[in-house]
Specification:
The chain is α+β, with helices and mostly antiparallel strands. It is built from 3 helices and 9 strands; from the N terminus they run H-E-E-H-E-E-E-E-E-E-H-E. 21% of the residues lie in helices and 36% in strands.
Length: 148
């Protein structure tokens, strides 16, 4: 239990330190033309923590997990406080797997989502309902643009 508490404090501290530093942001464009701002998660700590300990995510925001290499990546919503839609993307930013409404998990053991049927390089997490609103489907391509 003490280890879990220490981990939670470490994750919360990293979130607040990361927010002060202004994490890298990308614009993600969807086939409909809709764009969202995506915070980049590309460090081991951010890839593990993701959206943990956050109360909300603005409607036009997302988190983009960028892995060092394409693989059969999985994701958990441990310590998330709101449901999310998840998209697994390959190197070409083609949608390989869609999970709608992944529930937050505040338990010690949480479900994992994924992996996709093919190796993915990216996972995009956004508020639940976004996939349905955008009518996203497997095989569609997204675009990323660095936001300065």
């Amino acid at each position: 239990m003490l280890a879990l508490l220490a981990f939670a404090l470490l994750m919360a501290g990293s979130y607040f330190m990361a927010s002060d530093q202004g994490n890298e942001m990308l614009l993600v464009a969807f086939p409909s033309g809709t764009q969202v701002r995506a915070e980049v998660a590309d460090t081991p700590l951010m890839l593990h923590a993701g959206l943990a300990f956050r109360d909300t995510l603005p409607p036009d925001w997302a988190m983009l997990f960028i892995f060092d290499r394409a693989d059969f990546h999985r994701l958990t919503t441990s310590q998330y406080r709101f449901p999310v839609d998840l998209l697994w993307l390959d190197e070409a930013k083609r949608i390989l797997l869609i999970v709608e409404g992944a529930k937050p998990c505040l338990e010690e053991t949480c479900p994992h989502y994924g992996p996709p049927p093919e190796k993915a390089r990216y996972i995009l997490a956004m508020n639940a309902g976004f996939v349905r609103k955008e009518r996203l489907a497997l095989g569609e391509n997204l675009r990323f643009t660095l936001r300065l």
